[in-house]
User: Fold this.
Amino acid sequence: MRSFSELHEIIEKELADLYYPSTPKNLYDPIKYVLNIGGKRIRPILMLLSHQLFSDDIEKSLKAALGIEVFHNFTLLHDDIMDEAPLRRGLQTVHEKWDNNTAILSGDTMLVHSFDLISQVEHKHIRKILEVFNKSATEVCKGQQWDMDFEKREDVTLSEYLKMIEYKTSVLLAASLQIGGINGGASAEQQDHLYEFGKNIGIAFQLKDDLLDAFGNPEKFGKQVGGDIIVNKKTFLYLKALQLANESQRKQLIQLFSVLNNENKVDEVKSIFSALNIQKHTVDLIKAYYTKAMKHLDAINSDKKEPLFNFAEKIKERIV
Assistant:
């Protein structure tokens, strides 16, 4: 049974060995660049971890795991264009290093390649795996669209926001785990538990990210604290605050989230969040999703769950 770190090494080596033609240079060089600027490789590793719950022959999931990582990086490449982001993991984004058209076309090629890799599984599993992958890939796009739509709406609900982060962030984690289970020979019931584990742990992780953006230590968080507030992003914290605020606080929040340039904006918003005890409301919801995730992990019938428990424990340390 391979550990998380051992699987990370395998994925890194296999990604480095993926073949891309040398020409057209401006089509394939950006792909090589984006796949080699690092990353946690969580999704492909989770796929291999879930596979080895039921079978030691992880080779049967290896190509699909690479496909999931190529697809994930394709989404990041296109997200960076939409967000006009200058950096990704501390390095220039593809559209900045080349240009938008090059980034779009390279991303399209990555999407095609991801399907090619994911389809390289045992024939008996192809239909089910493509069904799971197609569903999650479509949902990732829906999540991204909702995220952009919410920027222009003033009536976003908490349930809509939670559905958005489920689609944008969690479903690909969940699909990775389910596909690994399918390839490893898991029953339909065990596959469902794997999917639900990934979905709930992913939502918990994103909610914690929202919380850290407002109240985290910038040195540990690795991002500008208050970034979501500065760009008027309607996170769980903002939407929960609107729900709990009195009329005066509500008007102030809406006014603060209608402008971009206000030097005291972050402090003023955080002051309202604190007055409404938004940190506790967020942590309580995070813990609820984490507990749900662990119930599904507990229900999986395998004696090889230690690496997944270790993964969940690291997530828990970040969460609480």
Summary: The CA atoms of residues 80 and 315 lie 25 Å apart. The chain has a mean pLDDT of 94. DSSP finds 16 helices and two strands in the chain.
